[in-house]
Write a structure and sequence with these properties.
The complex is a heterodimer of chains A (147) and B (535).
Chain A lengths: L2 H5 L3 H8 L30 H13 L6 E2 L3 E2 L11 H10 L13 H12 L12 H10 L5
Helix pairs in contact in A: 3-5, 4-5, 5-6
Chain B lengths: L2 H4 L8 H12 L1 H10 L22 E5 L3 H12 L3 E5 L12 E2 L3 E3 L5 E3 L7 E2 L6 E2 L3 H9 L4 E4 L7 E3 L9 E2 H21 L9 H15 L11 H7 L1 E3 L10 E2 L5 H7 L6 H4 L7 E4 L4 H10 L4 E2 L2 E8 L4 E7 L5 E6 L1 E4 L3 H4 L8 H7 L7 E8 L3 H4 L6 E5 L5 E4 L10 E9 L2 H7 L3 H15 L3 H4 E8 L15 H12 L5 E3 L11 H21 L1
Helix pairs in contact in B: 2-3, 4-11, 4-19, 6-7, 13-18
Classes of the chains: A mainly alpha (147), B alpha+beta (535).
């Protein structure tokens, strides 16, 4: 399931989308003044790992990547030994897990590669084996979420 | 003029009267079978107030989570003779059934704290906010628990549809878009019919009826054209309304052209008014959705232990041990019961040590939660009513706020009001809003809303914003089941696993609806009760 399919809402999805909330079928719109950093449509507009982290990941994992704790927690990505495996991050991004939706499905291959490389090389992480857009394409195919 | 209804076929014996006769003659079960065959009862698994018959002999149940699912289970099990205790993370009951009112303090994950400054009587429902008429279970509990309901206005013909990409960004009236879209379709179909394009599909006689229906329904004139005139004005309204005296004569408006209305895509917004979940009548509790959770809590006095953070669930052959932290003093404590109804969101449960089957564990981990952001805005005056004659209802937009919902209560009384100034469900914008501070989210809501209602700039007073992935007690809005996950995991999620059964909207086919939470709880405790009696 990728951005294209997401736009064609299935009945199930419409029902879900409508439930607590809005069943709005418009794609997101052109940026107006003051909204210039926000995306249009069903793919993130941010480019580069830093921007993607700040405007997407940081909502839960926090700007300092130290996570947050409530009734349960968002794991810290800072000093995270799980990030030694790029594949681990890819799996989270494309399959989702628990509270985490499969956000990679709203990113291009390049965006996903950028944000993975960014978190693996910041916040006390120093994993320098970068993934490429081609790696992401392969991972996406494997997880059944081809764009 | 209600010309659609006046000629509706009437049956000599109404369906309800027929059912009453069957019920009187043959008893309830025959009536129920008849109801099902007549399509009456099959629309919900609600079967009326639950009756758990048989003595549980003092069996005990620990319920995790005092949302509507947990409190439904606690209330009904208590009535059936169980000893019930409920553990709740928050200092209030209700869970996602929640209203934020003036004076309330809300701290989100990440640390930002908002103190709501709304005036007396005004509120934001950050979670559920409307109840369809076919959600029988929650309506029944509202009736039994004395929760006053009022109409929730879903469709307001005078509210707006707005696209930044159409009509130079000028919002259009729903009644005009609806009438002109349907009028255009009717005219085209009438044209095709009269040219013989439907001769193979529709008999001549039926074509005559079809043409009559198109004119009747579509607002076409006697020549089957949809154009400015009294026929279209009856649907789309007037450029100048009929009045009295010398200024009485109405002026018909010019319909939006077919090309303009099609390419505007504004017709997409009309779906929000026609789908089953949103058909009239919808309801809301007077004073905020949170009134329902408060009413449930009153029914189970002393059963809820607040500020209890569950940290572990362990079952053995004879019962269930719950480990929890008292959020007041930090003390780690234990609760023990024969059975456990776990109504925690899967986002929370998935992180707890819990010894259930591998299949249930896989199901718990299989459901991500939707990202949803809502923002409430208080204005000095109800300009949408005073200036624009919009009383309740929802305007839809392609801006990141997605919609503006006008309050369904306190209409035409002047004074201040709170708009739902943004309601963003999934998609990149929901995550982007979540990554913002509450003040930034409110600013986005203002910047978007001012494009539709310029009065925002001068009338705004104060706002409050909730991003559900930052809500400490849920870490997300509601279960986002994919069709594949449901196929592979749903039944495993709902099975009783030893002494534990799950409940909540995530364990229903009505995800994110309160009705799903309640029906899930009723189904779970019915099965649990059978198991208890069988032991």
């Amino acid at each position: 399931m990728g951005p294209i399919r997401m736009r064609r809402l299935s009945r199930q999805r419409i029902r879900r989308a409508s439930a607590v909330c809005a069943a709005v079928l418009f794609p997101a719109a052109a940026s107006a003044q003051g909204l210039s950093s926000m995306s249009q449509g069903w793919v993130f507009g941010e480019q580069g790992g830093e921007a993607l982290y700040a405007h997407v990941c940081a909502g839960c994992h926090q700007p300092d990547a130290k996570g947050a704790v409530g009734a349960a927690s968002y794991p810290a990505l800072a000093d995270d030994r799980n990030l030694a495996s790029a594949e681990y991050v890819e799996t989270q991004l494309f399959s989702g897990r628990r509270a985490m939706p499969a956000l990679g499905r709203m990113m291009s291959d390049q965006q996903a590669a950028d944000v993975i490389n960014y978190v693996r090389a910041h916040f006390g992480n120093d994993y320098r084996d970068e993934v490429s857009a081609a790696d992401i394409e392969a991972a996406r195919r494997q997880s059944g979420s081809a764009p | 003029m209600e010309r659609h209804l006046s000629e509706a076929a009437s049956t000599p014996l109404s369906r309800r009267r027929l059912l009453e006769l069957i019920g009187a003659a043959a008893g309830g079960s025959a009536m129920y079978r008849a109801m099902t065959s007549l399509g009456f009862a099959a629309e919900s698994s609600w079967r009326g107030p639950i009756r758990l018959e048989g003595d549980p002999k003092g069996a005990s149940v620990v319920v995790l989570g005092a949302g509507l699912a947990g409190m439904t289970a606690a209330y009904e099990l208590g009535r059936a003779g169980y000893q019930v205790q409920v553990l709740e993370y928050n200092a209030r009951a209700g869970g996602r059934n929640w209203s934020i009112r003036g004076g309330d303090v809300y701290a989100e994950l990440g640390g930002a704290t908002q103190t709501c400054a709304f005036d007396e009587g005004l509120y934001l429902n950050p979670g559920p906010w409307r109840i369809p008429y076919h959600h029988h279970a929650i309506l029944d509990y509202c009736r039994r628990f004395g929760v006053t309901l009022e109409p929730f206005i879903q469709l307001n013909h005078n509210a707006l549809l707005h696209s930044t990409k159409a009509f130079d960004g000028r919002a259009q009236r729903i009644r005009e878009v609806k009438a002109d879209f349907e009028g255009a379709i009717a005219e085209l179909l009438a044209k095709a019919t009269r040219k013989g394009a439907l001769d193979e599909a529709v008999s001549k006689e039926d074509q005559e009826i079809l043409l009559e229906a198109l004119r009747y329904h579509g607002g076409l004139d006697r020549d089957f054209r949809y154009r400015a005139g009294e026929d279209s004005a009856e649907f789309r309204g007037y450029a100048r309304n009929p009045g009295g005296g010398l200024s009485a004569r109405p002026v018909d408006g010019e319909p939006i052209g077919t090309h303009e209305i099609l390419t505007s895509r504004l017709w997409r917004g009309l779906q929000n008014f026609s789908s089953y979940d949103f058909q009239t009548t919808m309801f809301q509790p007077a004073g905020g959705m949170g009134r329902i959770g408060e009413a449930f809590a009153r029914q189970i006095p002393n059963a809820i232990r607040y500020r209890a953070k569950v940290t572990g669930i362990h079952q053995d052959e004879r019962g269930v041990n719950i480990t929890f932290e008292d959020r007041g003093d930090g003390a780690i404590q234990q609760a023990r019961a024969d059975w456990c109804v776990c109504a925690l969101p899967l986002t929370i449960l998935g992180q707890l040590p819990v010894n259930v089957s591998a299949a249930m564990k896989a199901a718990i981990d299989a459901v991500p939660y939707a990202s949803v952001v809502k923002t409430g805005l208080q204005f000095k005056r109800r300009f949408w009513e005073e200036d624009e004659h919009i009383f309740g209802g929802i305007s839809y937009t392609d801006l990141p706020i997605r919609q503006i919902a006008y309050p369904s209560a306190g209409m035409n009384a002047g004074g201040k009001g709170v708009l739902l100034g943004g309601y963003t469900w999934e998609g990149p914008n929901a995550y982007e809003l979540t990554a913002m501070s509450p003040a930034e989210r409110i600013q986005v809501a203002l910047d978007c809303g001012a494009q539709i209602h310029p009065q925002y700039l001068s009338e705004f007073e104060t706002g409050v914003s909730v991003a559900w992935h930052r809500v400490p007690f849920t870490l997300g809005c509601a279960g986002e089941w994919s069709d594949e996950a449901r196929r592979d995991h749903y039944d495993d999620l709902c099975q009783i696993d030893g002494r534990i059964v799950l409940a909540g909207e995530h364990a229903s086919y009505l995800p994110a609806w309160q009705e799903g939470a309640i029906l899930s709880a009723l189904d779970a405790i019915t099965r649990l009760h059978s198991k208890v009696l069988a032991i």
